[in-house]
Amino acid sequence: MTATVPAARTIIAEDDVVTGTAVRARTWLDAGELANWCGGNGEVLVPAFAPNATIAAGTAKTWYFRVTPPGRAVRRTWHLWLTGNAALEFKDTASATQNYIIADSGTLLVYQEDLSAKSAALQTINFTLTNAASSATVTVLGVTCFEAPRITLDGDAADLGVELTTLSVREPIEARDYSSVGGIARALTSPQRRQYINIARPRTTTDAWSTTSGTLVALLVEVPILARKLLPADTSGNVRFAVYVSASDASTSGEIDVTNDATGNNITIAATTPGTGWSWVTGDFAADILCEDLTEASGWPDGALLTADPKTLSIQFRRTAGAGTFYVASIAAVEY
Amino acid sequence: MSTSAQGGLIRGVPTTLADYSDRAVRTSEWRSISNNWNHIADERSRTLVCWAAESTTTGGITNSKVPNAWQRLVSFGPFPLLVGADGRPYTVRLAVGGRSIASAYLRIGVCVAGTANEQMGLTTAPANVLETAAFNNSTNLWRIDGYVTLDAEFVNYAIANGLSGASPSSVAAVLVTVEVWAKAASTSTVYATQAYAAEQVAL
Description:
By secondary structure, chain A is mainly beta.
């Protein structure tokens, strides 16, 4: 199997594909390499954010994130930026652990989470940091998680890797899965969706966002999201929001409001009596979030984020029923 | 700039092999497939950092350690950047914001892994670093945005290429960190509260 993933992308010479002219093998080889490049570079599942959260000696905190991976990754890489003279244990979603010593001047913690199965399912991932009893307090300053790149893809329905040797000069043109030009066409079905935000607080009632207010209060302000551009005339895209909620009792409800400052439109995500456990509620913001403008060097419509036209989102929450406290521990946004 | 002729996906392209069997496939279909792969690769770019403020007046990370000098507030990554057909990494669009209680500056930069201490503290911000104008404002706001492009500096990056950690391998990757630094005359007077970085196919 040689569905290798090149280090740099290629560009298919579309003008070489014209009626009445034989298409060079080189053109299709570029196409096969490009398909493998798109499939082999993983998604950033948790775009980096700064929790700025502390973990006292002898205690543990857990962060939860909602993701929809493309489904080809075999390894997730977690990178945390931490301060504090401490001994730490990192525990991943599958409860595998690794120990670290970190320094007060700032330490990059790298954890490789090797997966036992590929999955493109909507799922929750998490990590737990346990600070040893003898340590100083740890501050978690930066968190990110991305899918490690692949060096070759498999020729199967999960990876849809294109066998590059079948695109060489003098090879026959075939309509076969994972091979030749048929494999290039087949690989178009591989998911390529993008994760936009994943901001979380530790999942405890003392750390999570909380409110008893019936009036909307800020969760996140000026959130920058640029959707992936799909069709040629698109100026906006679809974004799905997932929010991890709980309440202090069985009768308290809440809601989350997501307002697009660019259009003034909003969606409301209801969390009706979530109870004292934690659960995800979801809302879809269809065809409203600005998408990338590929004619601009920055990708921002109008060329920049800071122009007279607002381009960010505001996320607020409130209690809508009951007399208890409404909690939010995590907010995610993903293309759908 | 879009590398696809249409600047977006063309709909209606068959993606099952049965649709291509036992017939002559039209040139337009193959052109559409080529267009779509070029566009998918353009939009394979990823959001690297999306840290939003939690209020308009509180939160954030402050310059608690040294006055009157550039100080790291937070480092994100390192990330392996996508590399374009010209051998250079995809452009990274950036933004940083915060508040202050005295005249202060913020910087956000994209640095090849291991070079941040040298590049982020330079007197004059290099091309891979954006620096705000001096500001003294107690509201959390985006202060500057822009984009930077790096030269490719590939390093071997260890990966696994099979499930459960099988097939240890390495790939050539351009590893970068996204850095947020600050400077003010006194400590604890400037706060970074938000940062953003995302890949973007180059013009």
